Amino acid sequence: MKIQNIFLASAMAFIMVGCVDDYKDGFQVAATEDAALAEFVNQFDVLKSCGDVIHIGAEVPSIDITSHSTRYSQLVSNFTEATITNGFGHSLVVNSSTGAVDSTIARNAVDDGKEGGLSLFGPSLCSPSNTQTTYMKQVVADTYIPGTQIEGDFMIFDFEDNAIESTLPASGGTTCNVVEDPDGKSGHCIHYTGGFNHPLLTVNLPQGMTLGDLISGEYDYRTYGAGWIVQGIVKIIAANTTKEYNPGTAASAGCVNDQWGRGAMKIDFSKLGLTDDMKKCTSFQLGIGEIISASDYYIDNVKVHGKYFKPGYYEPRPAEEKKADVTKALNSYMKTIMSNYGNDISTWIIASDAIASGDNEDVLMSSTIDSDENMFYWNEYLGDNYVSEIAKMARTIKSDAKLFYSDYDLENDDIKLERFCNMVKQWNNEGAALNGVNAEIHLVYNETRLTSIKQGIVNMLKALATTGLQVRLSGLDMVMTDANGLRLKTTDLTTDKLKGMSDYYNYVILQYMTLIPQSQRYGISLGTYNGTDGYTIGLWDQNFNRRLTYVGVANGLKSTTTEWSEK
């Protein structure tokens, strides 16, 4: 039944059903119409008196409770339940280096909240976005193999990968030909016939080695000894600089004409006088051989001797080993939190935010979907049924704990909503024994899309009811957007717009009270109930004056509506 109450007959009339208001907030106005609105809003009783059949909650930081300020008074006057947002999260209480868990952060807020008559609802214990990722990355890190100092011989050219009759560059615009060993024994080698020039090979050193790490070198050499032998040559071209020296001829190195001198030709890098910039190079050109008027010689198996630091690397660990370590770390966190607060908090969100949106092929979120390094996807280490495993873990700590699973954007994403319901069923089939589901909804009031937005709310509530579990709505607050989807500032919201937003609050709560069977109604929890960011509308402004949106929520809790009419 609706009871008509007329205010400001010259301007407007209100038709309302609500609670009697004993809560006064000192709302002061100058204009007659504003005074009538304030008087109307202030007739309503505090929220917890308007909806005593379900939990009426708020999400607050610890300071809102421990400060015993006006916000605290407002909290305990209006709400039956509080969720402390900054005292239990994995990212907040787990030490980033040691993994030690600090269970003291929320102690004062919990004690003060209970003293004020509030019951407490535990926030998410296992969420990708609320994880101490620095520590958990240590937990799942592969085995680190330290770097080592290495000294030895390194083959830089044996020419086996070069095709026969292919060419390699040499000085003076000449080339070397890749040929078979004249003796038919050692595979490929190079043959050089360019007069008064020499081979000039491009060297790419092993990873971690620079030109400055090289000590010496050697190579196989075979010559026919014809022509005028000018000198032997060792040349380095690097960092736009050329250095060279004469190591002597092949004859002086003991090479016999028409025979291989295996390893006979030597390179001494200390004689080159390399600059600091040259020493930093990892690739360079190496000139070797002899400068002869009628060159006709072969080169093979060019080696260098040097030392360098081989960088460390990670060796992959078995998945089962990582799973065991993640389980151990999670158990340490949950055991500390639930053991210390289990007598104060009986209901927790055991896990949240794991379901992938409808844009993704995978059902659960993962690092392949979201590359944010601040996220930690528990399912990648514990498996798709990890919620079942951690729910069982929680009840070994506190056997009578009531556990919820929570996710967001279910009212806007039908595919995600279906996945949500399916996974909750799957987890319960695997032994999770979840007591309830939680939908985090931050309402968007858009006049051009309101019909479809409302339908999304209806679809979500109907689906959540089919789980057979208790249903909770959290995060309730609201922004208004224009036709282009841009948020409007609270200072730009007219009375008519605020009435529309009030009606939307009312619609959501009425649908909750209608579509969720009474036995499944856990309750609602408001997010930003005081607007603080200049865009979000709660039920009070920053000066603790009730907004018109208060009417929509208060009446919704009584399963009634408010009709606004102009006279």
Walk me through this protein's architecture.
The chain has an eight-stranded parallel barrel with strand order 3-4-5-19-20-21-23-25. Strands 7, 8, 9, 10, 12, 15 and 17 form a seven-stranded antiparallel sheet that branches. Helix 12 (about 415-430) links the parallel strand 20 and strand 21 (about 435-440). With about 575 residues, the chain is an alpha/beta fold. Mean pLDDT is about 90; it is low at about 1-30. The protein has 15 helices and 26 strands.
Question: What topology does this entry show?
Answer:
Layout: E1 3-5, E2 12-16, H1 32-41, H2 47-50, E3 55-60, H3 63-66, H4 70-78, E4 81-84, H5 90-93, H6 107-115, E5 119-122, H7 133-139, E6 143-145, E7 148-157, E8 167-169, E9 175-180, E10 188-192, E11 200-204, E12 214-223, E13 229-238, E14 241-245, E15 261-268, H8 276-279, E16 283-292, E17 297-310, E18 313-315, H9 319-341, E19 347-352, H10 379-382, H11 386-397, E20 402-408, H12 414-429, E21 436-440, E22 443-445, H13 450-465, E23 470-476, E24 478-480, H14 495-515, E25 521-526, H15 549-557, E26 563-566
Could you name the key traits of this structure?
single chain, 567 residues, alpha/beta, eight-stranded parallel β-barrel, seven-stranded antiparallel sheet, 15 helices, elongated, disordered N terminus
Biggest sheet strand order reads: 3-4-5-19-20-21-23-25
The tally of strands reads 26
The end-to-end span amounts to 21 Å
Helix content: 25-40%
Detail the poorly predicted runs. Answer: 1-31
Q: What overall form do the CA principal axes indicate?
A: elongated
Which value, in Å, is the CA radius of gyration? 39 Å
Residue fraction in strands: 25-35%
- Secondary-structure-based class equals alpha/beta
Number of helices: 15
Q: What is the makeup of the main sheet? A: 8 strands, parallel, barrel
Report the average pLDDT across residues: 91
